[in-house]
């Protein structure tokens, strides 16, 4: 038994913030942001728009694409670092919105790798015969936790959601997923407050995403380079067989460095960073949906998805679409 992608969907909030808009309130420039990151603009959720709102829109579009009804879904798994509440989890909130009752519904916290982690878990449920039609979502509203006075992070992060419907199939589908984490690097990229920390920093206004950018950058390039190579060799396939690399969209320079490492021409890499920024767990499913909807990714092609995020966490998925 395998799981296969039956449909994809995505959602981006209406509000667009350009580099020029950001340059009005922090000391930065369109030129710096474009050259150092590849980002031109990003979508930002409205004040009353939550991660579940974004997830719902992406999920509905993936379900329509897959031709499935709420009654068909028997598992919901959401990767997110920005839940509406601490509980109920976003999976459960989404379940209620979609009018689905009773099936397992949960969220996975793995920062920007959240979607790959969620996909890997849902794939295992399907392979074990515990689910036949799973809804997997990556959704985040990081704009709500960045310090909008910190130019080193506020120019990077953005909001969005992407979703896939996985169905049980006799052939892959998802050929393999590989997940990794190393908590020794927890201080290089973190949001420095939470429930059991007492939300003290939230109360005194100093809670924010903190990142040692250039250290994260170096680690991400090395680790993702190794991950891609490891994924290819574990599945006994060569780079030439991959039709599309669908990377986490954190920085165009990271994406290009990884493509170069495996000799992958950039015209076989799906890049959405210019328009989306870094949408955390939404970044990979947003890129996947973009490539499918604009006709570049076609049925039968071999896809390599990869992501890297705070923790550190990282992971890949090799998929016959
Ligand atoms: O999604 C999770 C994983 N996240 C990532 O993978 C992000 C990894 N890191 C990066 O993408 C890059 O490190 C950044 C885009 C965050 C920064 O690029 P960088 O080339 O590593 O720049 P830097 O941090 O070394 O900073 C270079 C200079 C500094 O000035 P000085 O000290 O050289 O005078 C910064 O203060 O650029 C300055 N700077 C800025 N200047 C204009 C930092 N942010 C900005 C800014 N506008 N927004």
Give unreliable regions as ranges. none
The biggest beta sheet is recorded as: 5 strands, mixed
**Which structural class should the secondary elements be placed in?**
alpha/beta
Strands ordered across the widest β-sheet:
1-7-6-4-5
The kinds of small molecule bound in this structure are: oxa(dethia)-CoA
* Apparent shape: globular
Oligomer: single chain
Distance between termini? Answer: 16 Å
Classify the beta-strand content into a percent band.
25-35%
Total beta strands:
13
N-to-C series of helices and strands: EEHHEHEHEHEHEEEHEHEHHHEE
How much helical structure, as a percent, in the residues?
25-40%
Whole-angstrom Rg: 18 Å
State the helix count: 11
Overall average pLDDT: 97
Can you tell me about this structure?
There is one protein chain. With 321 residues, this protein is of the alpha/beta class. Strand 12 (302-309) and strand 13 form a beta hairpin. The strands form 4 sheets. The protein has a 5-stranded mixed beta sheet, sandwiched between helices. A 4-stranded mixed beta sheet has the order 8-13-12-11, with helices on both faces. The chain has helices spanning 19-22, 30-37, 51-66, 90-97, 114-127, 151-154, 200-203, 213-234, 252-261, 273-276, 283-293; strands at 2-11, 15-18, 41-44, 75-79, 105-108, 133-141, 159-169, 174-181, 189-191, 209-211, 244-247, 302-309, 313-320. The mean pLDDT is 97. The protein is built from 11 helices and 13 strands.
Task: Quickly list its features.
321 residues; alpha/beta; 5-stranded mixed sheet; 4-stranded mixed sheet; 11 helices; 33% helix; 25% strand; binds oxa(dethia)-CoA
